[in-house]
Amino acid sequence: MNLQAAAIQFNVRQGDVDANLAHVRGALQRAAAQGANLAVLPEMWSTGFAYKTLNELALRTAGIVEELLALSRELKLVIVGSMPEPGGDKVFNTVFLADNGTLAGVYRKIHLFSLLGEDRAFAGGDRWLLADTSVGKVGVIICYDLRFPELSRRLAVEGAQVICIPAQWPKPREEHWRTLVRARAIENQLFVVACNACGLIGKLDFFGMSMIVDPKGEVLAEAGDEGGEILAPLDLQAMADWRAQIPCFNDRRPELY
């Protein structure tokens, strides 16, 4: 099965849910019009990391999820992107995976970026997500999770064909981003659709560089530092052929490590 993936890169307006939602509506429609059936949004795309009002803003997420489900049904899309989810005193950084009008899965970010204080505002998730969707087996990780290869490997071993990565990855770590996204694709012989934010958000400057990468590590599409949508076809048969040619998974010896 072939599919068309899109990464929807934009400048998230911190705390402005209505503006972000309006942008995403239009971007999803544009991506679908170009044939996309999988779309990945940035991390915390609806609110940004608006720490002072995060608990209050999280109360709007349930309604946004309903709208995303409706959009995914109307546009025949699988949609991946994280938002704040109420979780008691703290919130979760959560992906609600919408698949043609149904909720295919929920993933709460496991690894919290303590350097920027995420652990003070967010509660960490405690389980990975691999969802059977209309476009295949989709795994999800969020931003900082990218630095922990064990999580992506677990998704790959469980059968992931595509790993989606919503992110807000700031300057000056562009090369870390580009290297790690490609590494996750190469070492796990699967497709990676990684969507970053761009522009100034609060005090941080984001470089964009959203990427769609194939199982050989070849970059199929890459954004610059401005907002916009990138698209690329994902050939799942070519992925299977590549895995047969270099059977890394058959040669693993996990009992030794």
Give a description of the structure:
The protein has 257 residues and is α/β, with parallel strands linked by helices. 29% of the residues lie in helices and 31% in strands. The chain has helices at 17-33, 54-58, 61-75, 118-121, 149-157, 174-188, 236-245; strands spanning 2-9, 38-40, 78-80, 82-87, 90-99, 102-108, 130-133, 136-140, 162-166, 191-195, 198-201, 204-207, 211-213, 219-222, 228-235. The strands form 3 sheets. Strands 1, 2, 3, 4, 5, 6 and 15 form a 7-stranded mixed sheet that branches. The protein has a 6-stranded mixed sheet with strand order 7-8-9-10-13-14, with helices on one face. Strands 11-12 form a two-stranded antiparallel ribbon. It is globular. The protein starts with a strand and ends in a 12-residue tail after the last helix. The model has no long low-confidence stretch (mean pLDDT 97).
Query: Could you spell the SSE succession in H and E letters?
Result: EHEHHEEEEHEEHEHEEEEEEH
User: How many E-type strands?
Assistant: 15
Number of helices: 7
- Please give the share of residues in helix: 25-40%
Assembly type of the shown chains?
single chain
Integer count of domains: 1
Average pLDDT for all residues: 97
